[in-house]
Amino acid sequence: MNRFFYYLILIIIAPLLSVVEANIEKETLTSTSDVVPVNIINGIEEWAKKHALVTLRPPYAIQRYEMIVPFPNAEISSVLQSGDKERWYILDELDQRHTYEARISYAASSPTEFVMDILGIEETAAILKERGVLEELADHKDAKVNTTRRVLRVRAIYAGVSIVPGRESQAIKYNIVLETLTYGIPYVAIKLVIVLVAIIGVSLFLIVPSVWKVLQTIRELEEVNQKLE
């Protein structure tokens, strides 16, 4: 009977074990609140609006078919340029002490290593100032607010070897997701887990006993027939 249960559970979860031909990179964060000067927040908001940055909000947000040009091998550590070789996203409306996962998926046929950095507002402002992207902001020491907002920086490094000229500079297509984690389980998987548990529960406590009873009856009949013969 234990073996029967084993095979039944395998049949139920088999569709979930199928392999998808895609690579996945992910970063997790537990949200905290930072005290940030209002002028820095305003500067980041203006910069985000000017460059039409995508804002990702929990519990689940996905941006499909994004494009990024990868850096050549080992170039990323020293480069300061942005543009097509770097993508930024605003992570907004995060709840304190909640855990989130930022996840990138891309085709396995693209030999790429994605680098994801989740930055605070002031850390982002410092990077942009160093690059000359964000103008020097007036100092308002008394005007500060609490924020859980974060900024996600995405970069990619070409990780393959190709004989095709220029292959390493071709844009890579990817999808990016921000998702709330509940006890380590992604938001969209919660319903699937509930349905799976319900199916297994119904199978174990209703279907399996009935089937097992029928099998026992058949076995007993066979034993009776053998004795009569």
Automatic annotation (TrEMBL):
TM regions (residue ranges):
188-212
The organism's lineage is:
Eukaryota, Fungi, Fungi incertae sedis, Mucoromycota, Glomeromycotina
Annotated signal sequence is 1-22
Q: Does the keyword Transmembrane apply?
A: yes
Protein name per its UniProtKB record: 388_t:CDS:1
Q: Which domain of life is it from?
A: Eukaryota
UniProt entry keywords in alphabetical sequence: Membrane, Signal, Transmembrane, Transmembrane helix
